[in-house]
């Protein structure tokens, strides 16, 4: 449609824009939806523990350290003849005897006691008890009450000692307990109540010093495993 203005001038009205095109806006690439790709399920990856054979190997009991004195060579020879398969190693000036079974170990100990030989018992990692410290109890608490309470909960207590401040010469409200690795022994850290009191249990932090035997005054072993003669 033409509109006449003035002398011979014509104008064209502006074209009407499409409403759909006027509302369309370009979306930047980083905000645009990505094309979804359907990925096929990947085949399972086969895994293998190269050290599984080591874990499935034979488990040996704790060893015996025979002190070299007198006719110890004849004792070693007799052990090798009576109990074939035992292994002997020279470790820290002791003859370390590794028996093939627990029954063999008991028989070797009987032979050593018969010969009046001196030896040390080396505990295996499985037989070595864990040490924990029980806190927040009264210093007047009877250690036997703690043992009975832990025993009723299924723990096997090897030893319990009340800790002491040697400078002040007084007992502390803390108890050092050895728990044998039997049953659910690791649950000891989750116990919150002992002898009807709210307690706190922590791992025993050993001081950086060598273990001293109270039987022979030697180092690196405890008195409960020592079968050496007492030093005068």
How would you explain this protein's 3D organization?
- The chain is an alpha+beta fold and 232 residues long.
- Among the domains are: 63-126; 130-203, Alpha-Beta Plaits (2-Layer Sandwich), CATH 3.30.70.330.
- The protein has helices spanning 19-23, 52-55, 72-82, 102-114, 143-152; strands at residues 3-5, 9-11, 63-66, 87-91, 94-98, 119-122, 130-135, 157-165, 170-179, 193-194, 197-198, 200-203, 226-227.
- The strands form four sheets. It has a five-stranded antiparallel β-sheet with strand order 4-5-3-6-13, covered by helices on one side.
- Residues 145-207 form the Pre-C2HC domain.
- Residues 1-27 are annotated as: Disordered.
- This is Pre-C2HC domain-containing protein.
């Amino acid at each position: 449609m033409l509109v006449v203005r003035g002398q011979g001038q014509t104008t064209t009205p502006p074209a009407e824009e499409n409403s759909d095109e006027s509302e369309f806006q370009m979306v930047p690439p980083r905000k645009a939806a990505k094309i979804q790709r359907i990925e096929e399920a990947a085949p399972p990856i086969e895994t293998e523990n190269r050290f599984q054979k080591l874990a499935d190997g034979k488990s040996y009991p704790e060893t015996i350290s025979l002190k070299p004195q007198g006719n110890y060579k004849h004792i070693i020879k007799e052990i090798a003849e009576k109990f074939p398969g035992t292994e002997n190693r020279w470790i820290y000036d002791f003859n370390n005897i590794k028996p093939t079974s627990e029954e063999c170990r008991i028989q070797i100990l009987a032979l050593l006691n018969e010969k009046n030989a001196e030896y040390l018992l080396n505990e295996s990692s499985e037989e070595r008890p864990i040490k924990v410290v029980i806190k927040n109890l009264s210093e007047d608490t009877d250690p036997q009450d703690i043992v009975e309470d832990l025993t009723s909960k299924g723990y096997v207590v090897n030893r319990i000692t009340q800790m002491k401040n040697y400078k002040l010469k007084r007992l502390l409200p803390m108890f050092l307990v050895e728990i044998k690795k039997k049953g659910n022994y690791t649950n000891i850290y989750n116990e919150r109540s002992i002898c009807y009191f709210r307690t706190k249990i922590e791992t025993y932090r050993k001081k950086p010093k060598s273990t001293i035997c109270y039987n022979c005054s030697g180092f690196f072993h405890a008195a409960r495993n020592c079968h050496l003669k007492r030093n005068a």
